[in-house]
Amino acid sequence: MTAGPPAPRRLPGLRRGSGHLLGTYGLVALTALLFLVFSLALPATFPTRANVSSILLNQSVPALLALGATIPVASGNFDLSIGYGLGLGHVMVMHLIVAEGVAWPLACLAVVAGGALVGALNGVVVEFGRIDSFIATLGTGSIMYALTGLITGGSRIVPGPEGLPAGFTGLYDGRFLGLPLPACYVLGVVVVLWVVLERLPLGRYLYVIGSNPRAAAMLGIPTRRYCVYAFTGSGLVVGVCGVLLAAQQQIGNPSVGLDYLLPAFVGALLGSTTIKPGRANALGTLVAVSLLAVGLAGIGQLGAPFWATPLFNGGALLVAVGLAGYASRRRLRTRAAPERQPPAGPPPAPAGQGTG
């Protein structure tokens, strides 16, 4: 008698499915769990509407900056000038409004357009100057920091007794449909980036360039042009951040921008490990920023010392880089190695044996 075929083995498939779900939505679950833990530890203050509104307001600029950093990361580049650009943008808005008397809408448009121009220059330096993006944007960022010092003279720009125009400060203080306006800006940028990166050819080209620039060139994709587009988009978002930061702080502080650089890259890199693991994506960045916001707010309300914030951001960056590298390698292995399945049906009988 011959043995029947073995029962199908489904455990590996279940493991792959559970691993995929964990990699895709694990960070979302961790954010919800962290919020629940802090809510149980701080029931009187943490799970309140006032606290959630405060988190949305305080983390709007880091969230926008992280979304701006996500665009070059999708193309395999890094824009380290975003912190310097944020500092330059917000003091430039204050300088134009307070010192030059420019109408605030024109000042805001000028800074946003200037941010896009600086981003395009970054792209040109990286792609046509053949300089590594890490080094190139660090150099251009240092130049922007020098320009910030030149404009401010190393001191703060403080408005006069009449203050700033109400329309300008309303960019940060206003509300829409019950939400703080800055949170609406973040959601708007997330939607735009999701459409660009996931639904338009531009996003697909950036992902191909980021995963394999040589293959992208062989496919006829103008890699230099699209990388310049990526840096331009990053600079545009940085300009918006500069306007929003000026409306938030209502003074021009020449050294404030660098404080936002590390959280922005933590959000962008950690976001590449969720929703679409292995590649930078807008929804993933939003989830990562939410996790950081909940964590920072929680440890702050628990009375953590001042050094806990940079410790948290630095540790999160190391974890983000490690997870991003692991997710990218796992994705490449999944594409390169064919899935090994056991042969269907019973194995053939050895030669010389009958069926009896």
From the alpha-carbon coordinates, what is the Rg to the nearest angstrom? 25 Å
- Please summarize the sheet with the most strands: 2 strands, antiparallel
Low-pLDDT runs of 5+ residues are none
Taken in chain order, the helices and strands follow as HHHHHHHEEHHHHHHH
* Biggest sheet strand line-up: 1-2
Distance between the termini: 7 Å
Strand tally, please?
A: 2
Can you describe what's shown?
The protein has 356 residues and is an all-alpha fold. The chain has a domain at 42-257. It has 14 helices and two strands. It has helices spanning 11-41, 49-58, 60-74, 82-99, 104-128, 133-152, 166-173, 181-199, 201-211, 213-218, 223-249, 261-271, 282-301, 308-336, and strands at 175-176, 179-180. A two-stranded antiparallel ribbon has the order 1-2. A hairpin with a 2-residue loop joins strand 1 and strand 2. The protein is globular. It starts with 10 loop residues before the first helix and ends in a 20-residue tail after the last helix.
